[in-house]
Task: inverse folding
């Protein structure tokens, strides 16, 4: 469904993506791992067309994303942002229904609210939170609201940017389980970027490691521990010693 061919992206003299090749099948949950600053977020922004690669090609259903009609293209995506990215001046239900209250996907206000309440229920939140502001919610609840917003418009493709950052282990487990269930139920194609190896094992069908601007290794999550790649092995076990240079 999504294919990257020799994608390069630089910022001045800093080469972030140095020829990324990656294929993600329809309905597959792909998790991209890699160290901080390895270019994972840049990769997502290039797929979304928010950044333009210097060279290479990104295809969605065989069509170049840079040539797509923007509104129709973006309507196919949902995203759970790393920090939640909720609008602090809007109540919870309006955050969830944000895309349904404006633009191409606009619905009548009452219908948008009902959809928001249903999506909140899907992530384990009751109607009692609908009128609260994000600041009145715990970190775990905010993450659930972000997840409800990501699925509100029934997207075909969902991006998850560090979905468990800042959460305690129990809540992280809840979010991982929700993501897995929802992606499976919707039949959506999912791309997750994360440092959390527990999330990787809970969410992924396939895993790809981004290192030094390229996909170092990719394969089924079931083969992650037997990748045979020293970079992957060091990263997934969190070892200080190995081919990946660390600051000391």
Result:
């Amino acid at each position: 469904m999504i294919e990257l061919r020799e994608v390069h992206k630089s910022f001045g003299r800093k080469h972030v993506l140095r020829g990324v090749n990656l294929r993600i099948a329809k309905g597959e949950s792909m998790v991209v791992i890699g160290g901080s600053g390895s270019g994972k977020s840049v990769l997502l922004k290039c797929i979304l067309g928010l950044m333009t690669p210097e060279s290479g090609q990104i295809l969605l259903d065989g069509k170049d994303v840079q040539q797509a009609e923007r509104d129709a293209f973006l309507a196919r995506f949902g995203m759970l942002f790393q920090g939640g990215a909720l609008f602090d001046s809007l109540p919870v239900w309006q955050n969830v229904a944000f895309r349904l209250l404006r633009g191409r996907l606009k619905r009548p206000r009452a219908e948008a609210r009902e959809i928001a309440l249903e999506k909140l229920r899907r992530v384990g939140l009751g109607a009692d939170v609908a009128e609260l502001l994000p600041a009145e919610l715990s970190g775990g609840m905010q993450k659930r609201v972000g997840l409800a917003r990501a699925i509100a418009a029934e997207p075909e493709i969902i991006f998850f940017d560090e979905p468990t950052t800042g959460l305690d282990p129990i809540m992280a487990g809840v979010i991982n389980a929700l993501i897995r269930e929802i992606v499976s139920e919707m039949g959506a194609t999912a791309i997750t970027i994360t440092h959390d190896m527990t999330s990787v094992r809970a969410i992924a069908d396939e895993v790809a490691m981004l290192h030094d601007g390229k996909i170092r290794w990719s394969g089924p999550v079931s083969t992650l521990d037997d990748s045979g790649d020293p970079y992957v092995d060091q990263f997934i076990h969190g070892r200080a010693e190995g081919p990946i240079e660390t600051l000391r």
